[in-house]
């Protein structure tokens, strides 16, 4: 199932993303306010504000060390937050783990752990079971469904370390699907896997979007992000730009995000343009949109300024 480009989809009911000072949102919104994250004394994310709404895929892009994985972990409550808050449905996101499903980078997983593909996917049901209940027929049925969905039913009894990289990724995506969460956080899900698995994962991302879920996709693949995502959140230790993909995936904003020239490719692989590097001695920045475009709130800020 091929992904539709965002501009080809109907947009009548999709709300714009908001950056800057955000309202409380609805009971399904993910709201980030003035988020700053530090490891010991090193600040790795500063002053992030955003509201993310249902039925959208939001691409998290930026250079290595820009804070993509850190943002996902901060939403999950896995890293120390110096200031600010993250809420899902108006409640602290860290207390709403049942409604959030996470697929970590493959490098973060211990593949020697003695569990089968079935066992890993069943872990996605634990949020519904609690500590005392054992999985029942409904849980087994859900695990069966998602293993078939990702094409891993025949490998359900295989120890995860014996699977290929693409198969391992399918198992962890299936675990996230088994959880039946409202928010799906994917950290580099397409990295280092075969083309067939990439297509399976892209199809799942599209299906989750159509089901009204919020999907956060941290990726280095700008072509996939520009095709699959409704919005892009461009990070380089702070939000450089956040808005609809067709208005954010520009040479100027990519150059501002990555701090230098970026070769931008069309989905077919042809070169669209190469972003110009910022002038010597000046921090990279994204140009502001003219004031006569009030139909959206597409916001970006210079890297050298503190967030308001």
Short précis:
With about 300 residues, the chain is an alpha/beta fold.
Relevant terms:
308 residues, alpha/beta, Rossmann fold, seven-stranded mixed sheet, four-stranded antiparallel sheet, 27% helix, 23% strand, globular, disordered N terminus, disordered C terminus
CATH architecture: 3-Layer(aba) Sandwich
Number of helices: 9
Percent helix: 25-40%
Assign the CATH superfamily.
P-loop containing nucleotide triphosphate hydrolases
Q: What characteristic shape results from the CA principal axes?
A: globular
The radius of gyration over CA amounts to 19 Å
Give the tally of structural domains: 1
- Mind telling me the CATH class? Alpha Beta
Order of helices and strands: EEEHEEEHHHHEHEHEEHHEEE
Number of β-strand runs: 13
Largest beta-sheet details: 7 strands, mixed
Topology (SSEs and partners):
Blueprint (H helix, E strand, L loop, with lengths): L29 E10 L2 E11 L3 E6 L6 H9 L4 E8 L2 E2 L7 E4 L13 H6 L3 H4 L7 H13 L15 H15 L3 E5 L7 H16 L3 E5 L3 H7 L2 E5 L3 E6 H4 L2 H8 L4 E3 L5 E4 L24 E2 L8
Helix pairs in contact: 4-5, 5-6
Description:
This protein is α/β, with parallel strands linked by helices. It has one domain: Rossmann fold. The protein contains nine helices and 13 strands. It has helices at residues 68-76, 117-122, 126-129, 137-149, 165-179, 195-210, 222-228, 245-248, 251-258; strands at 30-39, 42-52, 56-61, 81-88, 91-92, 100-103, 183-187, 214-218, 231-235, 239-244, 263-265, 271-274, 299-300. The strands form three sheets. Strands 6-7-8-3-9-10-13 form a seven-stranded mixed beta sheet, with helices on both faces. α4 (137-149) crosses α5 and α5 packs parallel to α6 (195-210). The longest helix has 16 residues, at 195-210. The model is unreliable at 1-25 and 276-308 (pLDDT under 50).
């Amino acid at each position: 199932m091929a992904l539709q480009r965002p501009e080809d989809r109907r947009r009548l009911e999709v709300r714009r993303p908001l950056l800057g000072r955000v309202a409380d949102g609805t009971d399904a919104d993910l709201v980030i306010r003035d988020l700053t994250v530090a490891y010991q004394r090193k600040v790795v994310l500063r002053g992030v504000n955003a509201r993310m709404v249902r039925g959208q895929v939001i691409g998290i892009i930026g250079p290595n060390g820009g804070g993509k994985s850190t943002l996902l972990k901060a939403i999950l409550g896995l890293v120390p937050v110096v200031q600010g808050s993250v809420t899902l449905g108006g409640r602290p996101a860290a207390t709403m783990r049942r409604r959030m499903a996470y697929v970590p980078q493959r490098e973060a997983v211990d593949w020697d752990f003695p569990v089968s593909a079935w066992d890993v996917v069943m872990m996605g049901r634990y949020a519904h079971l609690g500590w005392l209940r054992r999985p029942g027929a409904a849980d087994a049925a859900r695990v069966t469904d998602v293993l078939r969905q990702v094409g891993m039913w025949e490998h359900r009894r295989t120890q995860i370390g014996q699977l290929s990289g693409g198969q391992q990724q399918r198992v962890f995506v299936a675990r996230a699907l088994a959880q039946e969460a409202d928010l799906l956080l994917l950290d580099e899900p397409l990295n280092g896997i075969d083309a067939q698995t990439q297509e399976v994962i892209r199809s799942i991302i599209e299906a989750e979007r159509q089901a009204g879920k919020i999907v956060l996709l941290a990726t280095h693949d700008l072509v996939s992000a520009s095709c699959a995502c409704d919005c892009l959140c461009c990070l380089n230790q702070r939000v450089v730009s956040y808005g609809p993909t067709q208005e954010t995936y520009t040479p100027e904003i990519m150059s501002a995000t990555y701090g230098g020239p970026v070769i931008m490719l069309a989905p077919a692989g042809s070169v669209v343009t190469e972003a110009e590097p910022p002038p010597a001695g000046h921090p990279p920045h994204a140009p502001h949109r003219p004031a006569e475009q009030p139909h959206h709130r597409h916001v970006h800020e210079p890297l050298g300024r503190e967030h308001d």
